[in-house]
Amino acid sequence: xxxxxxxxxxxxxxxxxxxxxxxxxxxxxxxxxxxxxxxxxxxxxxxxxxxxxxxxxxxxxxxxxxxxxxxxxxxxxxxxxxxxxxxxxxxxxxxxxxxxxxxxxxxxxxxxxxxxxxxxxxxxxxxxxxxxxxxxxxxxxxxxxxxxxxxxxxxxxxxxxxxxxxxxxxxxxxxxxxxxxxxxxxxxxxxxxxxxxxxxxxxxxxxxxxxxxxxxxxxxxxxxxxxxxxxxxxxxxxxxxxxxxxxxxxxxxxxxxxxxxxxxxxxxxxxxxxxxxxxxxxxxxxxxxxxxxxxxxxxxxxxxxxxxxxxxxxxxxxxxxxxxxxxxxxxxxxxxxxxxxxxxxxxxxxxxxxxxxxxxxxxxxxxxxxxxxxxxxxxxxxxxxxxxxxxxxxxxxxxxxxxxxxxxxxxxxxxxxxxxxxxxxxxxxxxxxxxxxxxxxxxxxxxxxxxxxxxxxxxxxxxxxxxxxxxxxxxxxxxxxxxxxxxxxxxxxxxxxxxxxxxxxxxxxxxxxxxxxxxxxxxxxx
Length: 526
Description:
Blueprint: E1 2-6, H1 9-16, E2 22-27, E3 35-42, E4 47-55, H2 62-68, H3 75-87, H4 92-108, E5 109-119, H5 124-135, E6 140-147, E7 162-169, E8 180-181, H6 185-191, E9 194-195, E10 201-206, E11 217-221, E12 224-228, H7 232-240, E13 244-246, E14 252-257, E15 264-265, E16 269-270, H8 292-302, E17 308-311, H9 318-325, E18 329-334, H10 337-351, E19 358-361, H11 367-376, H12 378-387, E20 392-393, E21 407-412, E22 419-427, H13 434-446, E23 451-456, H14 462-470, E24 473-476, E25 479-482, E26 484-488, H15 489-493, E27 503-504, E28 520-521
Parallel strand pairs: 1-18, 1-19, 2-5, 2-17, 3-28, 6-16, 17-18, 22-23, 23-26
Antiparallel strand pairs: 3-4, 5-7, 6-7, 8-15, 9-10, 10-14, 11-12, 13-14, 20-21, 21-22, 21-27, 24-25
Helix pairs in contact: 1-4, 2-4, 3-4, 3-5, 4-5, 8-9, 9-10, 10-12, 11-12
């Protein structure tokens, strides 16, 4: 079954993916940019953000990770990283992180499989040396240049307008389905200069067989006797179909129309695939989102229907979306609960009833596993629980600051465009107090939220329940909703849910908007 994993891909790969079981791997890992990448919620009255992922790697835990590679099998890889520790300390922690994961990705790839890693010029040259040792220099196939933007303004340098995709195979026998890309305008003007009465561009090909190995057919055609490539009856068929053009001397030539040609065989410079921009219909607002056409090209070229495609840094799930649409099986891994929630919504929205069955692993399955997640990573616990309600897990102020609201959701309540905003607050500790509810209600007023949901791992106190009961109801035509509701973790896993409007438009009406923050990058690829 298709599987979406929440977790660090290193451990997911080691614990769940067998040797030589995947046909195609594409990864778009962080590029060691030393930035945080944010998602922004902006519905004009509320502006908030959430870190989608952090792209900063330090020396923490690198020693242990490097030691894992200090084996006879990976001796050269370990030695290379030791050199980088000295000559490229800015890249060293990132490369150690990537090396461990590349070893696992190589292990799970089938002998006929292919591997693609998406990167940029800041790390591609370092990353290629690591990939060369893991996959073998002899199995390097291409350095693909993808022009990701039409123009880019860099004040002191040439505009940085491209990414790099390195491709490798597992062995010398690998799946390859020739793809084509559109001819460029100069080629069309020089090779398809002729236009017929219907406006179709075409070129002509020689139908004589002079110098052609294997000989031909000698006969008179249109008053010209030559050695032709075709037997006479076949020439007649082409003539009757209007596919023969005659020169001034009467020699027959074959008409080859531009619109019937598949295009130029795929080259290693891709300028024909547009990036995600602010007007794109497929734009989800996830930082570093890649266009679906890019992944479709890779998947078509290096896999067949029914093959298994894996993305170990799946982000908003473009690889998985493309694989699903092209009838491949897939495995998707991401460490962010926000990404996993976004992928689920994306697949369900795109394919609706036609979606293949898939399971999600790594998210809490019961109260015990949820509490375990909270103890290990409170922010991941918060993100998981809030995104389970299709709400936007937000950060008001600095990371970790508790402003009474941990999440926002927007609902449509009628056909006139009336909306209600709900504020979510999460508490994962062993106790909660009345001041927690008071903080939520104060934040609701400040941020103009009509509804409030208090999610708690601990049992609420009697005064808290009394405050909630006294808060009253919010009425809309035909419905009424409790103004404030409390849901415990135990109740959640028993199937209880807060009473909220049915039509959730959080990720439709309040599209994410890119904003550049000092030391950070928003959603737009510049």
